[in-house]
Amino acid sequence: MAKRDVPLRWDRKMQQRLARGEAAALGELYDRFASLVHGLAHRVLDDERAADHITRDVFAHVWEHPDAYDPRQGPLRTWVATLTHRFAVQRLRATETAALARGGPGTAEELESKVRHASVAARADYIVQSMPAPLRAALELAYFQRRDYRQTAVDLGVTEDEARRRLRLGLQLLATARDAGTAPGPPGYGGAA
Asked: What is stated as this protein's family in its record (predicted)?
């Protein structure tokens, strides 16, 4: 429990510093989460410039509304990722809806399908980035290097049972990306966008 409390303590202190208006806290937060925010936004929008805008918008929102974060709901990282997801999906919907209104190709159903697919992909990316290193390493060996559980066990220096357990748990976590619909965080942080 003490191990889990350390990051939450950092999260609470960061929130307090932001609430006091400490610009250094925003810089620290940016340094820690900017690549996560930009990566998730880019995964949803597939547009570098739009991801830059979302990154700026997310950190502006955090700066302006630090009290919106509730440490009891989960880590600050998850809250920031959820904000990113929400802002990116809103932008994707607005952009695609405007294109449809101008007579662009596609239908409203195709738009919603595109939003769902982008949301699931972004959530899967977030899950992989957030999972413990041993699970991520096992999945990377199995997926990118096409190793089976026996080869994965040898490469990781673990038993075959442990390799199977890591792969199974990693895949179960990834399966939640699709099951959870469009929210990249716990239910208290968003739900469907």
From this structure: Belongs to the sigma-70 factor family. ECF subfamily.
